Amino acid sequence: MSDNTTSITRKLGNSVAITLPKRLNVAVGQEYSIIKKQSGAITLIPKVADYFANAEPDEFYTPELNVGYTPYGSEVGE
Known about the structure:
The chain is mainly beta. The protein contains no helices and 4 strands.
């Protein structure tokens, strides 16, 4: 989804707030991790209780990422 909407920051108590348009379908009460980059860009990442709660078998299986990888130390229970 691409949205070129702008918003203005506002003072809310001792914090700064920004409103998000309703059409972005942001749920009230949703918790986010906030990351501010050196460029000043701010990213909101929705927090999820358990990424794997509704995963299908092998959904996160990516053997191509393990080529040439050898576990060591605490990764093998040492």
